[in-house]
Amino acid sequence: MARERLERLRERMRDAGIGVYVIPSTDCHESEYVCPHYRAREYLTGFTGSAGTAVVTPEEAGLWTDGRYFLQAERQLQGSGVRLFRMGEPDTPDVETYVESRLAGTGALGFDGRTMGEARAGRLRAAAARAGATVRTDRDLVGEIWTGRPDIPDGRSWVLEERWSGESAESKLARLREQMERAGADVHVLASLCDIAWLLNVRGSDIPCVPVTLSFLTVTRERCVWYARPSAADGVRAYLESLGVDVRDYEEIYGDLKKLPAESRVLLDRRNVNSLLVTSLPAGAQVIDRPNPTELMKAVKNETELENLREAHRKESVAFTRFMYWLKTTDEEITELSAAAYLEARRREQEHYLEQSFAPICAYGEHGAVVHYSATEESSVPVERKGFLLVDAGGHYLEGTTDTTRTFAMGPLTDEERRMYTAVCRGNLRLAHARFLRGCTGLTLDVLCREPLWELGMDYRHGTGHGVGYLLNVHEGPNAFRWRNPAGETPAPLEPGMVTTDEPGVYPEGRFGVRLENELVCRELEENEYGRFLQFEILTKIPFDLDAIDAGQLTEQEKTWLNDYHRSVYETVSPFLPEEERIWLQQFSQPGAAGQNRARTNFDLLLSAEGAPDHEQR
Amino acid sequence: MARERLERLRERMRDAGIGVYVIPSTDCHESEYVCPHYRAREYLTGFTGSAGTAVVTPEEAGLWTDGRYFLQAERQLQGSGVRLFRMGEPDTPDVETYVESRLAGTGALGFDGRTMGEARAGRLRAAAARAGATVRTDRDLVGEIWTGRPDIPDGRSWVLEERWSGESAESKLARLREQMERAGADVHVLASLCDIAWLLNVRGSDIPCVPVTLSFLTVTRERCVWYARPSAADGVRAYLESLGVDVRDYEEIYGDLKKLPAESRVLLDRRNVNSLLVTSLPAGAQVIDRPNPTELMKAVKNETELENLREAHRKESVAFTRFMYWLKTTDEEITELSAAAYLEARRREQEHYLEQSFAPICAYGEHGAVVHYSATEESSVPVERKGFLLVDAGGHYLEGTTDTTRTFAMGPLTDEERRMYTAVCRGNLRLAHARFLRGCTGLTLDVLCREPLWELGMDYRHGTGHGVGYLLNVHEGPNAFRWRNPAGETPAPLEPGMVTTDEPGVYPEGRFGVRLENELVCRELEENEYGRFLQFEILTKIPFDLDAIDAGQLTEQEKTWLNDYHRSVYETVSPFLPEEERIWLQQFSQPGAAGQNRARTNFDLLLSAEGAPDHEQR
Description:
Two copies of one chain form a homodimer. Chain A is an alpha+beta fold.
């Protein structure tokens, strides 16, 4: 199928005089998750991963993606005629270098200016200039060959009340305008859907797993204009009017930008607007290219949001712990899909639950090694009573968004499996218990998590953690944990209130995967003569699987951390469990016999001289 | 004295129409260590630290320096009329911001273009432009008021033979020219003295503690020109001729640059040339601003250099261990100065020793908290039989350069002193035993060293480590360990062959200082499916002071590391010790009684179940 689509695309390229055509994976907003209408790269190549760029030439077609997706892309591209380019590997050219090398004499470089981010468009234009080629950005060639393309969605929007958001849109707009003034900007152009949703306290339903509305926003000192599709605007029109926000149609922004005063000073983030927005500005406009001020503002959660998030995580942890109980005790046959369904059913029992925050990963055995595996009717396998089941899932609640991974021992484990699980767990604990000076970024702290694996000569080919939106994209910046910056962008310094995941893993190909993910919120610790020290609070309250821990690998300090964590899990979760599940959780702290397909989870196994956790005394 | 000099300077400023005058701490080569002729900032303010910038206005004079020098600068600036600006603290403006704020209406901005680095000059010019002020760079105003200014040195140069350098200058020049070609450069201008010395395999004697020659170098595809003072050139003229290097007078470079072909493509590093070199280029010249290729080339030591360095460190470690024996056993009265002299005497007994690689720090008690303390006849105090003596010293050998710090328990310690020493030692060991993927910078790894102190709510206000030159400046880039980049410059990824110090510390003000510094060389570990793993080899072989260790704070792994390290110290050093000192060192591994002013150093105190080190069996 991909071969035939590629041929039709190449015909259009020939007709348009385009020698190299680039198809990114995003929409007009540089979104990570995109609605089906904008999945042009997927339509063309068959690769369904969230990150990837396709490049088509008359002779070759290539797909660039990162380490998370190497295995999946290999499988999905088989027989497609599309070659996989593994980003980050030493011999892989970047997209621009490749484009430059293929342009000579073949015609223009082409891409759709609406779906190409301005920062990437700039790099592609530079590559074309080096190759002496022109650039065409007015043709959506995949759209032209796409039969049965889904419509642009037009879902209802709704207002997120202040008891959930913790700050009024008036207050947020006032803070934004202060920053615009400091930057000397007359106009601010926002295309990032999550920044707009956060700023206006409006949520929507246009993108699966991300409750936002397809829209643009322009902000001046006095007014705002929200560009959205008609039905999307209906539910929030009166609310927006009360804020002084005009509502216009989604497509009108390009024309309105052309009509800005010629000398406007326009604040925008080239990484987060599409190329057509920038090329629509009047020629004399001065672009102030900075991160959107809302990026940092929304990353620092306020006290109301944090209090809500603790509640959201309590609910998610109850659902996850009940799921764990079921996995460990049921006699039913389990499949990857039935396991995911059971977890989702427990989540649906929680009040204020809205939807999944991403497509869950429920991966048994060797599927666990596919970092972003997603079970389908075809791929789903029975879960046997041995080895690992890896489950990465999250939900949107009115109280905020969650993202958790646990790996469960479904029965006997090999020594290697146990060694790997323990190393991953050590990394997770070490990062969570870091104490650090203000000014640290996730680049400074990442190694704390990775070192137990590096000591074993192993690694995971993904970041250690990402920021988490509040009823927004489960992945958000500018905070993150990672050990290097291939793109040269350092994560932001950690600030109190930022929420970041802590998710080390190992993925021996073709055998199994282990990942353990908690969410951490950055908090004040103390200020003294040496500076302002920060620490983390662990939001997630789900047991680690002690059946998979080799206590001999843990230091005394790590044992204390693990026991303290499980004590707080029991305190948080147990009041919300059915009695037999509460007793099961409590038994985690009792010596127990090793079982095959039953939990023999045993806190005492881990205990140092510090004494046993005693849930009954509280 | 400073007050009177400031007044004379202000007179000159008034006459020249200069409102703000900036005096950096460097020479015409952006050197860290400068010969007395160029110490204008020291002459003016009285502050003797190696890093600091003075700014003088009609009303105020300020000195900017970093955390290493806060205590020293406070003391030396007392009564000088010069205000201390503590760089890195939240309320301290940077030099440029301050300059801009003081320029309005006061006249021109002035500095000496020969001693101002081009990168800093560019930032100052921008500040002046924002303030609407002109810039004068042709007046050395401090030189004009400086009576009895020392001459520019003109010492002899000599050729470093290939058995020490490991690579001929022909080969180095060929590698440099390859990189010039890749960068599309016709000419390369080098002002960095260490880069020039490394490239030509020439050493000199113009700068105390840095065996290099004051000179500039220009390199084209066919020829080189070395600009040096006449006597400096004499010893190496024939050798340089054989390399195709012309020799001209030191000052001629500025005129020669003016005569370059108008369209020359000139490779230079704006951070490492003075401003006058750049303003001397023809107007049409195209500057290719990159780090000097020699910076990375000389940082990666070749196998000959590494083999030599092991020998240099063996010699330094023998001297240091004998010094430790003497400190721990002598009945003599010791002062800071007599201790430093004893160490230097032991070093002078070693073959191929040339000179100190920096002024040693020998700091007893509260002096240890002054990070860059240097004992003088006035400041030197008796070393008592309690508390800590901190000694940071290094030497140049034909086999390379060393830099080591040890802190010695001179008798009973407080619990706090022991706790601090142990935390510092843990940090040192953790970094030294890191295993990491290629691509890691010192920014990724720094926290391994710092975390044991951060856990206690403490920190040290300096980097964890710096690159070390080979018979060059003891501080060199581009490798370093640090946890943040105030200037936005990330250290280079660690490559096999790079040598970096590992030197955590704590400095409770007014009480004591602890610093423990080893040198680490980066080495290959293994390449596997996850990537190319690297590790460190510890070059320094000097005992830690086990009298100061609280074994209860160490993990089992740290105990093993410490015991293994001391085993390798004994193996390396003991064959070169007098018999009674060898026995003393051996007794480190025997259970011993606690002493007051004697070592009760005791490996067994530290031992885990892994077994005692048994020196006699080897």
